[in-house]
Amino acid sequence: xxxxxxxxxxxxxxxxxxxxxxxxxxxxxxxxxxxxxxxxxxxxxxxxxxxxxxxxxxxxxxxxxxxxxxxxx
Length: 73
Description:
Layout: E1 17-28, E2 31-43, E3 49-50, H1 53-72
Antiparallel strand pairs: 1-2, 2-3
């Protein structure tokens, strides 16, 4: 099944949104983790960032790999 794209921001309904790749910070287990090449949507009007299910899957996979590397270290 193809991932849906957003036509408008779910927060303010603006159509000034774009799917971008960039660095984000996510909190996991009380720690801030920098994710260098995350894909997410961002609204130019209200600044809201939001994610598709595929974006979140990739973020979770990255966080899981980082946790595995921390345990091994």
